[in-house]
Amino acid sequence: MAAWFTRSGNIAHHVKRNMGSFLRPAPTLSDSSWSRSPACLGNSPALLWAGRLESTRAQKLVDSDSENDAPLRDDDQAIDFPGGRVMLTSEMQFIPGYPQQRVHCYHLMNNDGQTNMCSSFEQVSKEVAVKMYSDMITLQIMDTIFYEAQRQGRISFYLTSVGEEAINIASAAALSPDDIVMAQYREPGVLLWRGFTLQEFANQCFGNKADCGKGRQMPIHYGSKKLNYFTVSSPLATQLPQAVGAAYSLKMDNKDACVVAYFGDGSTSEGDFHASLNFAAVMEAPVIFLCRNNGWAISTPTSEQFRSDGIVVKGPAYGIQSIRVDGNDALAVHNAVRAARQMAIHEQRPILVEALTYRVGHHSTSDDSTKYRPVDEVKHWEMGQNPVNRFRKWVERNGWWSEEDESQLRSSIRKQLLQAIQVAEKMEKPPLADLFSDVYDVPPSILFEQEQQLRETIKRHPQDYPSDVPV
Amino acid sequence: MATALNRTRPVVYASRSYASGPKQMTVREALNTAIDEEMSADPKVFLMGEEVGEYQGAYKISKGLLDKYGPGRVIDTPITEAGFAGIGVGAAYHGLKPIIEFMTFNFSLQAIDHIINSAAKSNYMSAGQISVPIVFRGPNGAAAGVGAQHSQCFAAWYGACPGLKVLVPYSSEDARGLLKAAIRDPDPVVFLENELLYGQSFPVSEEALDSSFSLPIGKAKIEREGKDVTIVTYARMVDYSLQAAEILAKEGISAEVINLRSIRPLDRSAINASVRKTSRLVTVEEGFPQHGVGAEICMSVIEESFDSLDAPVERIAGADIPMPYAANLERMALPQIDDIIRAAKRTCYRSAPKAAAA
């Protein structure tokens, strides 16, 4: 166990960059195996990679070059294997697969909204706190109303984020608008925080012509280039290697931004998860891997998903600095993500954040979770560990929120949502021309021909064509 | 080392030292120079894959590129096709232009979710907000004695998917022109090379040596004109078809050989124009017969030129079995020149038994 943390300590030291400069510092004791920077490469992004390239060759030089390491003379002490020097021991000890004590969970605020006087954290301003709380309420109401709309048959599908409002909003609040978000599907709150309107959410769910996704995707597959939120993709964990690639692109452009990839506990079983974390560490990509460990992947509890101490312990396995945080504690999530972002960008490295929480709702409208878990358990989390109530108490304690604000906001949001749904429902569907566009950058002749054929068929048989779909 | 470095300079310089006559270039050199020139012209282009950097490429296609562009743009990856294909797509999402190399397209199956669900469909699903200017390239189809998991042809599989462009170069000029076009293209391109063609030399024109050269995607090339039967094929089978055409000519059958160059978009107009001229069609491919490229071409011809056909369409494909290893079995599992000749003769009513061993 100790070995892990030493390693991550080394990583923390090894890449110290000055703001805006990519010249590596002189070698120090702690980064003995990483410090060779070829002088020839000059001040270019290629220099970033000098250490990576060199580190594989450098293993042979590891002792001869560093003035602080003792020269290897005694084979009883250590051996220089490929990958570095390892100390030898005659005591046979297997590292336990599961720790005696689980990794601690970063937590600032209790259920009554009280923070520990001893803990220090950067304060959240009134403006930000009120926006955070309002957005959490908005997300809750949005989920309730869209879920009902699906039950009424007005939209085909929906998936709620009940219980995960703090993760959604507090993490979003810790990011800058330039940070790229690659979500899984239970993070509409991030989009909400950035300014996606209730009408835009409704338009996507109804697949009407105002949907910026042109009605191409099923509900909750939101996306907005303007808000730097990549369109949601259904295959699980597919966004993780994509996030690393996008982070690499930011790195090459030298941008003051990172990528945040959200995913659930279930997704960590996918091959893509492992490939991405490994790769991100090797490429030193500025990406935050934010896991919403909500205990359930449809009907699979985490005890059947993996046997490790959650997700946080997987980070160090790939050489990634990681933290476990109470996902229902908005202040803790906010603080942790803010710190993670600083490290990801200024140290150009990936960070793993595991946010523990509970999926209060069903997996989606296609699921009935009462079939596989006790209702009592759900109630315990919904009532007893509710992130929204907890944050509300904190905001109220600061004198920034009142009962009146609460009822005003709730009725206003509800009204806006119902209105948005009405408008979205009545609006026309996307026109026929949108069927064939965007398959390629420029439509090929064969699609053009197919469109012509379709239009001719419609002209010949207008009675068979739906009246609410514009041509 | 010096020779290697010489090779990485654009061939344009080398050609000026020749007095006259077409320059010969191997497909390997063609691909190497194409990647080199495009990386030189656009700083957003980068190469990623297993062994592409320090090892100079599993098949030496990327020789010299690491030294020239550095490890930031020629990236040796951990062994995870799913990982680096997905990373490439993510990088393309944000505006870079990755060239992802698969050691063989057989291994692309480990990344196929990213090729199809991420790359091919993103532009459509995002309504044009996310474009994916990526190239997936590597050897495809049979090599020599590499067995079932290293020999499959994926032209038909990738060719079926809307959102992808699928290219199948044959000659060095094809390789250069099509790869340059693929790298410049804003859509995701699957670029199917062939290991056995890497070492083959072809003459290349002056025009093809220029760094701005590129070939249009979706246009087939008539390698040999003829009037009696159309042979449509791609990649290595173009070579076999041309040899078959030579032999057929001696027997009085003038075969027109069409090198598809592109599986998607398929140059249906060129194929149909040729069939309307010759009235007979033979399709030749290495891949498995069911749901193959030949099946699609046949249907296209039936849809557009049925009345022109004087004989049923003949489809030559690989045997419907996983590729065996033993050399004699491998030979029997792949189309041979004799198969093409017999098929062409059948369309011309010169009776010949279908089975080779009959």
TrEMBL record, chain A:
GO terms for biological process: branched-chain amino acid catabolic process. Its EC number is 1.2.4.4. Gene3D superfamilies: 3.40.50.970. Residues 136-430 form the Dehydrogenase E1 component domain. Its cofactor is thiamine diphosphate. It is found in: Mitochondrion matrix. It catalyses: N(6)-[(R)-lipoyl]-L-lysyl-[protein] + 3-methyl-2-oxobutanoate + H(+) = N(6)-[(R)-S(8)-2-methylpropanoyldihydrolipoyl]-L-lysyl-[protein] + CO2. Keywords: Metal-binding, Mitochondrion, Oxidoreductase, Potassium, Transit peptide. One of its GO terms (cellular component) is branched-chain alpha-ketoacid dehydrogenase complex. Belongs to the BCKDHA family. Heterotetramer of alpha and beta chains. This is 3-methyl-2-oxobutanoate dehydrogenase (2-methylpropanoyl-transferring). It comes from Vitis vinifera (Grape).
From TrEMBL, chain B:
GO terms for cellular component: mitochondrial matrix; pyruvate dehydrogenase complex. Keywords: Metal-binding, Mitochondrion, Oxidoreductase, Potassium, Pyruvate, Thiamine pyrophosphate, Transit peptide. Gene3D superfamilies: 3.40.50.920, 3.40.50.970. It catalyses: N(6)-[(R)-lipoyl]-L-lysyl-[protein] + pyruvate + H(+) = N(6)-[(R)-S(8)-acetyldihydrolipoyl]-L-lysyl-[protein] + CO2. One of its GO terms (biological process) is pyruvate decarboxylation to acetyl-CoA. It comes from the Eukaryota. GO terms for molecular function: metal ion binding; pyruvate dehydrogenase (acetyl-transferring) activity. Residues 25-200 form the Transketolase-like pyrimidine-binding domain. It is found in: Mitochondrion matrix. Its main location: mitochondrion. Its EC number is 1.2.4.1. Its cofactor is thiamine diphosphate. It holds the Pfam family Transketolase_C. Tetramer of 2 alpha and 2 beta subunits. The pyruvate dehydrogenase complex catalyzes the overall conversion of pyruvate to acetyl-CoA and CO(2). It contains multiple copies of three enzymatic components: pyruvate dehydrogenase (E1), dihydrolipoamide acetyltransferase (E2) and lipoamide dehydrogenase (E3). The pyruvate dehydrogenase complex catalyzes the overall conversion of pyruvate to acetyl-CoA and CO2. PANTHER family: DEHYDROGENASE RELATED, PYRUVATE DEHYDROGENASE E1 COMPONENT SUBUNIT BETA-1, MITOCHONDRIAL. This is Pyruvate dehydrogenase E1 component subunit beta.
